[in-house]
Design goal:
Layout lengths: L15 E3 L2 E3 L6 E5 L6 E6 L3 H20 L2 H17 L1 H12 L3 H20 L7 E4 L5 E9 L2 E5 L7 H12 L3 E5 L6 H13 L6 E4 L3 H10 L5 E5 L2 H11 L5 E5 L4 E5 L5 H13 L9 E7 L3 H13 L18 H16 L3 E4 L18 E4 L6 H4 L6 E7 L2 H9 L3 E2 L1 E5 L3 H10 L4 E4 L14 E2 L2 E2 L4 H6 L2 E9 L2
Parallel strand pairs: 7-8, 7-10, 8-9, 10-11, 12-13, 12-18, 13-16, 15-16, 18-19
Antiparallel strand pairs: 1-2, 3-4, 5-6, 6-22, 11-21, 14-15, 17-20
Helix pairs in contact: 1-7, 2-4, 2-6, 3-4, 3-6, 4-5, 7-8, 9-10
The protein binds nicotinamide-adenine-dinucleotide.
The site of nicotinamide-adenine-dinucleotide has 33 residues, from helix 7, strand 10 and helix 8.
Amino acid sequence: MPAMKHLVKGTSRYRHFINGDFVDSTAKEWLEVENPATGAVIASVPNGSEEDADRALVAAERAQPAWEALPPVERGRLLQALARLILENRERLAQVVIAEQGKPLGEARGEIEGTALYLTYAAEEARRITGDILPSDNADEQIWIERVAHGVVVALTAWNYPAALMTRKLGPALIAGNTVVVKSHEGTPLSALEIAGLAQQVGFPAGVINVVSGTGTGIGAALVRHPIPRLITLTGSVRAGKEIFRAAADDLKLLRLELGGKAPFIVAEDADIGAAVRAAVLSRFENCGQICICNERMYLHRRIADEFLDKFVRAVEALKVGDPTTLVDVGPKFSGPELAKVEAMVDAAVGAGAEVLTGGKRLTEGAFARGHWFAPTVLKVADNHMAIMQDEIFGPVVPAITVGDFDEGLKLANESRYGLSAYVFTKDMRRLMRLIRELKFGEIYVNRPGGDAVHAHHAGLRNSGIGGEDGKYGLDAYFQKKTIYVNYA
Ligand code: NAD
């Protein structure tokens, strides 16, 4: 087993993982990684260069044919082994996630369990990589449709789940026979490099998994522009999705873009109010509101609006905000710019007439003197066109509107550029059947909080993306189809 050399000797500087080994970047620039709870610099990573992108992609390309030639079950065994090692390292990896991203301990442990689950689920698909055999219109002839790998995949991930978003792409890409170059977000690059270290211990063939670090406009763009990868899979912002869409056009690369959301949370007059309040709190404040499927705006039937808001505000005020290395409910915002963005959105909403029911400002006193903290916030607004109702907040803030009836809630929910997830609380089956047809969102949660399943399908409509992940449809994206006409006369 080659020695693990994550770090430049005697420093907290990480290195790229390319072709089975930790290597230095050709760039002599470093990016600092900050702990969101304290503002302290905890490590640095290479600000990868175009040459680094080329090195990683060439290694992936060289490794791909032999990887695809392995029986899928053998590929699955390596994925299972990596999943086991991730779980054995659960506490250590959870601390890495907390340190670079800021989610509370319980959630960080959950993320690491999910990180392993994406791999074991993909591994279980090894014996289900099927094709089709069709009768031909000609005598003594068959038509075969086979699913084969694309080749090299570039995986770009967001900062809110730095470990799980990596294996959500890695698992299906690898079981399908592709090799991969991963680039995590520049603010949270450590989990992916730590997982690369575990992949090295497991003994994946060199070049099958490569992990590099750097900015989106630097090494990220270089990976997208490069002629080697056929498929680019991104989890990130709509802005990055559009830039990558444009950049990928020259070579007609295939894209999977999992982008932002602005989930409506509709509460009808017949809803179980207690259950709706609990779900609305969890679905907004988990990971400090930094989940693409979070409850971003609430539509409350006029008959239950006061009761709902009263209970909701009390539940929000009871949330424990604090040190994410402990079992609190809400940690810090991920970064200074992210905190400033949320603050500006709240200030603009208040300036435009929103009423602050609780919170509404940064937390700066005592334990909150360092790091990036915002008070859990509830706003009452009257106009669905306000920016706070239309733009993704991605923080611990939720606006609510009172609606006259269910139809109005449905109409306002659909008035959005986004189409990722939506929440509805009602006991009326006829309404549910209507929702399926009329709500323009890819993932709808009925009478429950958010949280997607590894074997379902997570896909955004409209500006929330093109593609989709998880389950059989997510896996299918990592194959291309070849059709073979076989005449045996
Ligand atoms: P981001 O778009 O800034 O970055 C995502 C990744 O893309 C990073 O690795 C970044 O370096 C890279 N990147 C950025 N611009 C690039 C370019 N031009 N070329 C190549 N690479 C580029 O997003 P973020 O701030 O990390 O993530 C937050 C967003 O992600 C939110 O909008 C959130 O809703 C969304 N998100 C979506 C899902 C989903 O499954 N739909 C899941 C998690 C997060």
